Amino acid sequence: VGNALSAHDPRLDIRYAFSNAVGDRDLGASLPALLRAGAFTSELSGALAGSRIDLAVHSWKDLPFVESAETHVAATLERADPRDLLLVRRDRLAQGPLHTLRVLSCSARRATNLREFLPWALPGGVGKASFRPVRGDILRRLRTLLTGDADALVVAKAAIDRLLAVGEELAPVRREVRAALNACRLMVLPLAANPAAPAQAALAIEVRRDRSDVADVLAAINHAPTFARVLEERAQLAATRDEDHPVGVSIVPLEGGPASTKAEAVFVRGSLQGVQVEAAHLRDREPPLPRVASRGSVWTGERAGSHTLRRIALASGNAPSGAEHFGLLIARAEALPDRWPLTPQQVVWTAGLETWRKLAARGVWVSGSDESLGETGAIAARHLFPQVERWVKLSHDAGYDTPHATRVATYRLERAVPLEDIRLHSHFFWRSGSVFLEYLRANPRLREAWHGCGPGNTLAMIRAAIGPERVRAFLSPEQFLAGMGA
Questions:
Q1: How far apart are the C-alpha atoms of 290 and 16, rounded to whole Å?
Q2: 18-71, pLDDT tens digit by residue?
Q3: H helices within 306-431, ranges in order?
Q4: CB 320 within 8 A of CB 296
Q5: Contact assessment for residue 118 and residue 190, using Cβ atoms and an 8 Å cutoff
Q6: How far apart are CA 222 and CA 77, in angstroms?
Q7: Quick one: three-class SS letters along 6-35?
Q8: 107-136 in b/e burial notation, b at 16+ Cβ within 10 A?
Q9: What is the C-alpha separation between 431 and 418, in angstroms, rounded?
């Protein structure tokens, strides 16, 4: 925040004051009680109310839902990566299958969502995940993991990201964090399965309500889209007055993906007042497509489904030399041949969660996923994997080329059934960009139809072929049907 202010106005005299939070000193009290009392933010807020400082910077998710009468959040910077990070000790993995994964985390949200996710996401047949409390700053938690009897730790990825980026004045901290990461296998947890706490990874810049002069200065560095999304996330749970809620809410923009889109993804998952809740959808700021006259006007894919195309392995699809120095982006589980050498240092990243599930069942450690939202997720995680010198994408011979990786074709697609007659339809949902191009070559009138698809590579391929005006992103064919009024 200080750097952002100095960049805006180099004349500002910026001085820093630091304080250890009560919540990090009092390791015996319950986390929900500490959060309700603002135990991670109250000392700085008190210094602000007493005019001993001009502004306070907090992790926004630590602020109580109810704002003070004397102070308020006036600004925020652009949000960091909101996802959680799982660290699992390599020495525990080397001992053989973990029938119970003992995870350090105080968060009710993480425990609720990860109990279901981790048993299938981890290779080796983990039967269940159990959770035990851990508190203190990040270094304290990392030391507790590496010196105690737990197997794993969950932390906010933004916390690790920021410590890996500190300057030379905190170089020993950066080296200790890196050493801890090297002692573990890492997994960036997907938002669809484990949405973050409201406001996670966002900074709250708090000022006194009577200091409009400070608020005016902060307005120049405020990132308005982040501010609006955080307020919406917190509003969804503020009525519960339970800061340690067992439900996550994340609203993330999709700008910067392979296709130009103004959509944002909304994920909600957990337990709210004892009821399991789960929702995921895209919210698009572009004009909607025309609604359909009848359900029969919509085509959502070939009736034969996955049997319409045969996958033929290519003998040329071999692993490049120096396998330990590249990461793998995998579009489909079938794209990873059994013969590929996977080292203990190998980083595997999937296009979607179904591919993750299938690879984990084959015993592959998956480090994260793009969640079918476009090939950007691994970009935000590259600094976690310094051993990766380049990325290789495994796909078919007509797959989508990303600027972030070299594509290696491990199979080709061969049509097993004829193209369907689609002349009576006006609206189409596509699961594959290559299938869309097949139908477009046979049916040029598709340029005048209306189209939906996922927000990743398929959207990029369709828009490259026909332009952006007649295609929009949806998370599923069901949401496309609902959006079209079918």
A1: 55
A2: 887 665 655 565 666 655 555 567 788 888 988 999 999 999 998 888 888 899
A3: 353-361
A4: no
A5: no
A6: 6
A7: HHHCCCCCCCCCCCCCHHHHCCCCCHHHHH
A8: bbbbbbbbeebbbebbbeebeebebeebbe
A9: 17
User: In sequence order, what are the residues at sequence separation of 6 or more whose Cβ sits closer than 8 angstroms to the Cβ of residue 358?
Assistant: 333
Taken in order 55, 58, 64, 65, the sign of the CA dihedral is positive
- With left for phi above 0 and alpha for psi between -120 and 50, is residue 125 left, alpha or beta? left
CA angle 246, 61, 241 (to 5 degrees): 55
360-415: per-residue pLDDT in tens? 999 999 999 999 888 777 777 889 999 898 899 999 998 888 888 889 999 999 99
333 CB-near residues (< 8 Å, 6+ apart): 354, 355, 358, 359, 362
> What's the rounded Cα separation, in Å, for the pair 74 and 369?
34
Residue 172 and residue 169: Cα distance in Å, rounded? 8
Tell me the backbone φ, ψ of residue 395, rounded to 5 degrees.
-155, -165
CB atoms within 10 A of CB 277: 14
E strands, 351-404, are 368-369, 390-396
Q: Record the pTM.
A: 0.92
